[in-house]
Amino acid sequence: MKTTFPHLLLQHAAQRPEATALREKEFGIWQTWSWKAAATEVRHMACGLLSLGFAKGQNLALISDNRPHLYMGFLAVQSVGGVPIPLYQDAVAAEMTFVMKDAEIAFAFAENQEQVDKLLEVRETVPSIRTIIYDDPRGLRNYDQPGLISTAELVAKGAEWDKAHPGAWDALVEQIEPGDVSVILYTSGTTGQPKGVCQTHAAFVASAQGGVEVDRLGPQDNVISYLPPAWVGDHLFSLAQWIVAGFTINCPESASTVSIDLREIGPTYYFAPPRIFEGMLTSVSIRMEDAAAPKRWLYEKCMQLARRVGSDILDGKPVGALDRFKYKLADLAIYGPLRNVMGLSRIRVAYTAGAAIGPDLFRFFRSIGINLKQLYGQTETCAYVCIQRDRQVELSSVGQAAPGIELKIADSGEVLVKGVSVLKEYYKRPDATAEVIDEQGYFHTGDAGVIDANGQLRIIDRAKDVGKMRTGAMFAPNYIENKLKFFPHIKEAVCFGNQRETVCAFINIDYEAVGNWAERQGIPYGGYVDLASKPQVIALVAECIGQVNADLATEPGMADTQVARFLVLHKELDPDDDELTRTRKVRRNFIADKYGVLVDALYEGKAEQFIETQVKFEDGRKGSVSATLKITDAKTHPAAA
Q1: Distance from the first to the final alpha carbon of the chain
Q2: Domain count of the chain?
Q3: How would DSSP label each residue in 382-428?
Q4: For 147-150, which contacts have Cβ atoms below 8 Å and span 24 or more sequence positions?
Q5: H helices of 266-393, where?
Q6: Structural domain of residue 48, as residue ranges?
Q7: 116 vs 119: CA distance, rounded Å
Q8: How do the residues of the chain divide into helix, strand and coil, expressed in percent and rounded to 5?
């Protein structure tokens, strides 16, 4: 049996036809597809594409939230030798245009009216797009543009075509080889235009098998699929591991109902980037701030105990009988209800990846009994390079090399990777491929790191972001930013300091958390700009930065990287304004250029600075926001002996 996505789907359908493959919540009710039903739907979707003229070797774009027909669409395209290309569903039409042209898209799958409208706009400049398949017909009844067809019509056409061409689809499936490209994932493009990463069936299946083996995943597991399907992490967890392990994927009703659906499903296996866990912790902090004094006291006492022994209990390390008894009681009173309210009460394994996670945030979840671990990788490595094994979790590392992966540190300190998950090539970019894969077959990750005696990899920062202070100290901005983002009142931070005497920072407040705090303090405010400029809010942020500085002062070589001055930005950093990537990674150089006047003000010792900034609205309109920002000196500490 070949190990390609369509072959594995057919294997599950033959061996476990009635087992649940997918669920979707629609109109408040969970709809279910068995493996047999999913395989039939995939077959008919694929035959429907063939009836419309889709051919082997063609690319098909998919723009959708997490929906069963999206995941079945991936398999349908692959089953006839085509290549699916997912795009970020919150991308504006102008962002889609580059990918549509680069990938020569003729067929596209859109979830709903919003995505169809964007594709019709893109089609004005990319006339090659001739067929748009939409999943949700609401609002599209009176659309008469050529090439529009619903998923229901596609499936019906496919069923007829399959009857008229017996065995044709099966013959195409048999032609697929593990070394064929299974998906093209476009990088988020922190610098320059995104590049199409070509990954094969063999790479993603081997990466999925490694994770399944390490964590003993199987048909009994449940996951909730809610992350952007264009992100490599969702492709690994919601498609590759689903098709390898045969567990059930659950698609939420909408982005706004994810937390409710999470509690309803109670997944056993969960994956989220650090920002999701940061959001969960912020939500918990807000609830506790609103709680009665006795509850707050009990919560604080239990969290002190959790910080002291929680991770050791989870890792099976020796812990005294009295502490174990106290922890059990605290689990009944605090940790259990906390896990339940976050929808993580049945979690057996949870992973975070996509960006570095702050040690404090990591420790919090592990201390309350959630087996949170780190996965390290890139789009170019199927998000699969290092994996943390149970009972070998270190807060400061991303784990050991995953099965089938070989690690090496270059003389420059860059992490190099060779193995099953490395990309085949960049789409139509042999020059870019040659830049990242050397003659020995090692992929150059662009991350700076070190490997310890136990084979654990510690990532310092992006190699291009790691710099030096004028004092000679190493400057790793991401490390400092993660410490700052642990505080529920800080949503985003951008640090500067390379080739400078001191570190300075831009801060984005968390509007919900700080707004809640302001209301309890009796501080009136009229929106984000007003709230961010309040002296009490600036003092609150200064207190958080002071605590981070106290922490940095105790770490070897980090005392010189304490934040000396900061300002609270007048607007939230936003992907629509090109300040963040679609996966919410900071575009540091772009921000430094865009807000150069603020960076200069921080280092020139100014007390305030006026700025006016252009912003883009969701409907494509442009506007501006202006403010005079107060610049504050942070409390720093002498280096600890």
Answers
A1: 62
A2: 2
A3: TT-SEEPPTT---TT---EEPTTEEEEE-TTSEEEEEETT--SEETT
A4: 148/116, 149/52
A5: 274-290, 293-305, 311-314, 321-330, 336-341, 359-367
A6: 5-201+222-252
A7: 5
A8: 40, 20, 35
**Residue 273 resides in a domain:** no
**Quick one: pLDDT band at residue 189, thresholds 50, 70, 90?**
low
* Token pair in block for residue 587: 């575009």
Residue type, 553: A
pLDDT for 290 equals 83
- Residue 527 sits in a domain whose CATH number is 3.30.300.30
Question: Which one-letter DSSP state was computed for residue 576?
Answer: G
Nearest to 417 by CA among 441, 387, 451, 448: 441
Query: Which secondary-structure segment (H or E) carries 37?
Result: helix 35-51
Q: At 117, which amino acid appears?
A: D
- CB 504, CB 484: distance < 8 Å: no
Amino acid at 325: F
Give all strands of the β-sheet with 563-568 in edge-to-edge order: 490-496, 503-509, 563-568, 622-633, 608-616
Note whether residue 354 is domain-resident.
no
pTM of the model: 0.82
Contact 395, 388 (CB under 8 A): no
Q: Which CA distances in Å does 474 have to 80, 179, 466?
A: 51, 42, 7
Other Cβ atoms less than 10 A from the Cβ of 227: the count is 20
DSSP string, 162-227: HHHSTTHHHHHHHT--TTSEEEEEE---SSSS--EEEEEHHHHHHHHHHHHHHHT--TT-EEE--S
One-letter amino acid for residue 594 of the chain = K
Structure tokens at 96: 């889609």
Residue 4 confidence (pLDDT) above 80 = yes
Task: Read off the pLDDT of residues 445-493 as tens digits, 9 standing for 90 and up.
Answer: 988 888 888 889 988 777 788 888 898 888 889 889 988 988 889 999 9
Q: Give which of 452, 493, 448, 444 is closest to 467, Cα–Cα.
A: 448
Has residue 603 been placed in a domain? yes
CA distance 421 to 598: 42
Residue 402 lies in a domain: no
Tokens 């020139």 locate to 604
